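Project channel, design review

CF: Before we commit to the Trematosphaeria pertusa constructs, I'd like one complete example in the thread so the newer folks can see what an input/output pair looks like. Taking F-box domain-containing protein.
RD: sounds good, go ahead.
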Amino acid sequence: MSPQPRYARATAASAARSSPKSPKVQEDATTPKKLKRPSTLPSPKFRAEYHDSGPFTLKPENPKKACRLATLPPEIRLLIFEHVLRVCPTVYIPQHGARVACRGKQLWPALLRVSRLVRQEAAYVFYMQTTFICAIHDLSFKAIKYWVELLPAAHRTFLARNTNLRLDLRIEMREWVRASLAQSWIATERFGNMYSIRREKHRLHFISFCKLADWFLWCGKPANVKMKWNYAVEITAWSWSGWPSRAALIQQFLDVCLLPFSFPCVHQAWVRERRQSEMKKEALNMLDGLDGIFQGSSRAEKATWEGEWNRKVEILRRFLGKW
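CF: and here is what came back for F-box domain-containing protein:
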């Protein structure tokens, strides 16, 4: 066996430092290393005291008088808050902003302004059990988006567990097209150029597609994806022969608003924001909601449209399922 080269051998100084009897090695083994900068984490004692005391407490206005509400368990306080908030079980979100009067109450009840602890516990009851309704005119979802974005992140989490979020689709089929042409460019510039479509009929299909696509993309955001929206249709359209049936109105809405998602003219003009995967969930949710409303109509109303409705819904569901 050839001897080890000289350059690979340890020097006397390095051998002495690596020896177990070296004072340097013994000092490193017993003395913990000092951090270069102090830790920003709280000490275990502080964390234990913070956890035991709770993040928020009720402080009465007069410290000499005991606060009876603070002495109750959280479960009892939630029952009290539920009883108080039951006075206004339904809240209608207006078109002009986030505040709305509801039987003398505001959209944010006064109970949520008492203290941090009360707001945290009462918001759990208010945003999970209250029925929120917003009317959608001309496929404009600005009001509901504005209201949701004003809520704190914690309250949005409670709202995502609410199964009573309802959107009333109120669309006057005759006036909708004429009214939307004035602001059609604002609605379509996010997805493409509406003037690249020559025929007016196809251009109107693209306008309705862009309005719904904007809503579907908003619902696909991580902060909003867990919210479950229920759709309803209000009969506000009219014809010269009188008020149409609910089944006929839903059939018209499907043809004008949802069915264009599968039209070639729409996909030809759709050159920006092609994020089908984010739009898929809410698009199918709206389609299922409309299908449930149609199937819930009376037999006399849907007798004329049932075959055609089922065929179109199946085509659209297969098309959206590929996204």
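RD: helpful, thanks. The beta strands are 90-93, 131-137, 165-170, 229-233.
CF: DSSP finds 16 helices and four strands in the chain.
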